[in-house]
Amino acid sequence: MNIREIIETDKKYFMNTFGDRTPVCFEYGKGMHLWDTDGKKYTDFLAGIAVSGLGHSHPALVNAIREQAGKVIHTSSLYYIEKQALLAKKIVEISCADKVFLANSGAEANEGAIKLARIFFKKRGEDHKYDIITLKKSFHGRTLTTTAATGQQKYQGPYVPLTPGFRHVAGNDIEALKAEIDESTCAVMLEPIQGEGGVNLSDYQYLKDVRELCDKFGIFLIVDEIQTGMGRTGKLFGYEHFDIKPDIFTLAKELGGGFPIGALCARGKAAGAFEPGDHGSTFGGNPLACAAALAVIETMEKEKLVENSYNVGNYFMTGLKSLALKHPVIGEVRGMGLMLGMQLKIPKAVEIRNKCFDRGWLVGSIGNNIIRMLPPLIVTKKDVDGLLMILDEVISETEIPEA
Ligand SMILES: Cc1ncc(COP(=O)(O)O)c(C=O)c1O
After folding, report:
1. Fold of 3-29+46-50+304-397
2. Which of 110, 150, 253, 255 to mutate to test the pocket of ligand 1 (most atoms within 8 A of CB)?
3. Is 269 one of the catalytic residues?
4. Which band of pLDDT confidence, cut at 50, 70 and 90, is reported for residue 401?
5. Which residues contact 132 (CB under 8 A, 6 or more apart)?
6. Poorest-confidence range of 107-111, 189-193, 262-266, 398-402?
7. 131 a catalytic residue
8. Which of 250, 323, 324, 388 has its CA 20 to 30 A from that of 64?
9. Is 318 helix (H, G, I), strand (E, B) or coil?
């Protein structure tokens, strides 16, 4: 099908949840690049929204999936699964977790985290302790419960009544959090850097204080690492930047390098709260998904992709800051590692994103004021130079209204 036929078919048969998408369909990819149905080449600085960390069609990932698919794809949780056990072991070895449960997506991993926090207190006879405090501008997923956890009205409005038991406070305001914690609170849940909410960083001291508060009140700290985890921020997990250990954290996105998988990871007493029958999943942690995730982690280690995220991320940040000096329309550049956002003083993010696209460069936007960049972790300084040149060109030709 050509792109016109693909769009027509989509419009006719696919539910209209995504509106008018960027009018392109990618047919294949290799490393940092994607090619569309007309054979046009693009350089990918979005990685499928922080998913394709190894880039596209990495041979290690392709071979692992191919090999496992040729053996067995799915067997169910009724039986032991070697790769599931090995992946759980690997995640425990590289993180602060003691135990892992595998799901199919980020939202599902977060659902598991919420259930885990609640059941822990329920089993202690503290039935009243089920409230979870999350942050305004947060994003935790699209299921009904993770929508309730998400601190953004625009996702919640149409679905009221939502799952009860969530309260939202402003980020980086420890007094606001302190004021909200009471007898009914079982956990605080947050992203170390809010992704969908606008690339908003937590202050170092804030997260240290949140950890301390949770300890003081005997409640759990759940860290949503779905976007920040797996090397995205220049460390393997976002929480490492803040010298804290969550009780529960969740992974998805980059964990499978594009193959759907989510992980619920827990430490200490939280790790033992689920008992047989308390939680489950048909597909979660099946042999194919686990083979993919194991290949991702092994390749990240072999190719030192966390170090690359840190080094190229710093280089990228420096470049974006120079760009901001040249173009006063750029208000602020923020982020960590390869999770970067450029705040504009005028609502031109979509226009700039589209102009980059026309030139064969993929970047994202949040609202109409933030350009977001989440390249594969294999990105090089040369790739970054290429995008900086394009951004310079595009911003220069974008009409900026007189102040
Ligand atoms: C921080 C965070 N949590 C949860 C999710 C939901 O993940 P999924 O779309 O895999 O359900 C996302 C997705 O963007 C996310 O960025």
Report:
1. Aspartate Aminotransferase, domain 1 (3.90.1150)
2. 253
3. no
4. confident
5. 114, 117, 149, 165, 166, 167, 185, 186, 187, 188, 189, 222
6. 398-402
7. no
8. 250
9. helix
